[in-house]
Recover the amino acids of this structure.
């Protein structure tokens, strides 16, 4: 019977994006599961066959805890049967109807459909960015309310799901930029898997600093589903890379931080059009006049 070495942590919901990103930097597969609705705790798990990379994971988790405002989580070690891991991944990532237009499904449910919905297949091994987290859901709900526009940028694209959704909904060009080379490769594979690789380009680099993203500016729509402070820091760059009348859909923060993100972008001349809250996470839609 095949077994896999498993590492796991338990963290509050606000820390899930950063902790998942930390696991993804070193693990071969990552999954997360909602443990407790009352306390808002999540389990994040990763498969790590190379023990030498454990130090890198510990370092990444310290940074993730710092930006999330929590203590560094205790890492639990163990083994899991390969079939058991796959079964839990399937359980944690069922086909997910989002908004009125989208169905996000894992590779293990690639034939799942719902009438009237655009089905996107996302590698379930990534977990975060699959549509499970409320920040991704908020961005997709905001997207379906907008009018068709092009081109589209997705800053910190992760699994590529937002760029893929815009391309599939409107049949327009979308460009995703991702700092982590491994995540960028997975996003490119997701584009090919959904037959959207002719519309969606994935470029490496650090947000708006990436030459591949600047070269295609200005954009009619930009997504950025990251954290509040990085969003504030790049507010001027976001406005500068949007065309007049262009919109930014921003998420990755709690409602208490929404005012901070809004103010940073209003200072650049942008105006707030919509504010959504999905499961205690906020999404803002702003427009450059």
């Amino acid at each position: 019977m095949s077994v896999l070495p498993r590492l796991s942590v338990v963290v509050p919901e606000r820390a899930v994006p950063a902790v998942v990103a930390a696991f993804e930097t070193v693990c071969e597969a990552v999954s997360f599961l909602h443990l407790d609705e009352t306390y808002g705790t999540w389990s994040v798990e990763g498969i790590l066959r190379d023990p030498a990379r454990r130090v890198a994971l510990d370092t990444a988790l310290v940074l993730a805890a710092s930006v999330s405002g929590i203590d560094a989580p205790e890492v639990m070690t163990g083994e899991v049967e390969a079939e058991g891991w796959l079964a839990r991944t399937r359980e944690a990532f069922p086909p997910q109807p989002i908004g009125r237009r989208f169905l996000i499904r894992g590779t293990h449910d690639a034939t799942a459909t719902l009438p009237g919905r655009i089905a996107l297949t996302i590698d379930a091994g990534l977990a975060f960015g699959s549509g499970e987290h409320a920040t991704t859901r908020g961005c997709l709900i905001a997207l379906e309310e907008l009018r068709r526009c092009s081109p589209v940028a997705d800053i910190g694209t992760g699994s590529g799901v937002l760029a893929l959704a815009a391309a599939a909904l409107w049949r327009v060009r979308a460009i995703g930029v991702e700092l982590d080379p491994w995540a960028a490769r997975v996003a490119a594979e997701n584009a090919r898997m959904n037959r959207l690789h002719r519309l969606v380009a994935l470029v490496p680099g650090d947000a708006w600093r990436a030459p591949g993203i600047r070269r295609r500016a200005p954009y009619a729509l930009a997504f950025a589903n990251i954290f509040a402070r990085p969003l504030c820091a790049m507010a001027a760059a976001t406005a500068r890379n949007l065309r007049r009348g262009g919109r930014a859909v921003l998420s990755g923060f709690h409602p208490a931080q929404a005012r901070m993100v809004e103010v940073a972008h209003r200072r650049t001349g942008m105006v707030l059009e919509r504010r959504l809250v999905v499961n205690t996470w906020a999404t803002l839609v702003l427009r450059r006049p």
